[in-house]
Amino acid sequence: MEKCVICWVYGQVQGVGFRYFTQQEAGRLGLRGYAMNLDDGSVEVVACGNDERVEKLLAWLKAARPAQRSG
């Protein structure tokens, strides 16, 4: 089943390659979407694709950043 999620990642996520690595992982999983820096210092991540693969990206995001998250 197709699924889309939007989440925001907080903490030290700008200027450290976080968007790049998130986009690489999403591409590896065959997902569509984007990762974008926001003015408040967080990163917005939008991912669409197979439900199981989207869940894998969400798990990767949680493991990759021990920072506060919303989404």
Automatic annotation (TrEMBL):
Pfam families (UniProt xref): Acylphosphatase
Enzyme Commission number, as recorded: 3.6.1.7
Residue ranges annotated for the Acylphosphatase-like domain, each copy included: 4-71
Catalyzed reactions: an acyl phosphate + H2O = a carboxylate + phosphate + H(+)
Enzyme class: hydrolase
Entries under InterPro entries matching the protein: Acylphosphatase, Acylphosphatase-like_dom, Acylphosphatase-like_dom_sf, Acylphosphatase_CS
Single GO term (MF): acylphosphatase activity
Lineage: superkingdom: Bacteria
Residue positions of the active site: 19, 37
Keyword annotations of the record: Hydrolase
Family: Belongs to the acylphosphatase family.
Name of this protein: Acylphosphatase
Lineage, top ranks: Bacteria, Pseudomonadati, Pseudomonadota, Gammaproteobacteria, Enterobacterales
Gene encoding the protein: yccX
